[in-house]
Amino acid sequence: MSDEEYLEEEVVTHTGVGARLKAAREERGLDLTQVAAETRIPQRHLLTIENGALSDLPARTYAVGFSRTYARLVGLDEREIVDQARMELAKTKNAPLRQTSSSRAIRHGCRAGGWRGSRCSRGSC
């Protein structure tokens, strides 16, 4: 392997999930509208992924699942993308994912969670 090939490989392995997915999408000649239609992932979430902001998605499950689906569509190794997404999320673990009132309610056992206008007995939900 020449030095040039080694450097090129090094760059590819250190890019984020979003950058890799975007590059693969562009290589296939797809735009975000097409990806959104084929994957049924909202375009705003695709943009969030491509911008490398996985922790800004509603939950970790969305980040991992959407990354997997996106990878499948653009022909990348799903497992590799999912592993990398999990590593990126672990790095930002101290920064919590966006939280809704119902997720706060579930954490402390409240059943109200703001559903149908009801309020938590603790008043924090």
Tell me the number of structural domains: 2
Helix content: 55-70%
Tell me how many strands there are: 0
Question: Which whole number gives the mean pLDDT?
Answer: 77
Round the Cα radius of gyration to an integer and report it. Answer: 18 Å
The geometry reads as: globular
- Tell me the series of helices and strands, N- to C-terminal: HHHHHHH
Strand content: under 5%
Question: Would you kindly provide a brief summary of this structure?
Answer:
It contains 7 helices and no strands. With 125 residues, the protein is mostly helical.
How would you explain this protein's 3D organization?
This protein is an all-alpha fold and 125 residues long. It folds into two domains: 3-94, lambda repressor-like DNA-binding domains (434 Repressor (Amino-terminal Domain)), CATH 1.10.260.40; 100-125, no CATH class. The protein has helices at 3-13, 17-27, 32-39, 43-50, 60-74, 78-91, 101-107. α2 (17-27) runs parallel beside α5 (60-74) and α5 runs antiparallel to α6 (78-91). The protein starts with a helix and ends in an 18-residue tail after the last helix.
Question: Any descriptors?
Answer:
mainly alpha; 7 helices; 125 residues; 434 Repressor (Amino-terminal Domain); 2 domains
Topology of this protein?
Blueprint: H1 3-13, H2 17-27, H3 32-39, H4 43-50, H5 60-74, H6 78-91, H7 101-107
Helix pairs in contact: 2-5, 5-6
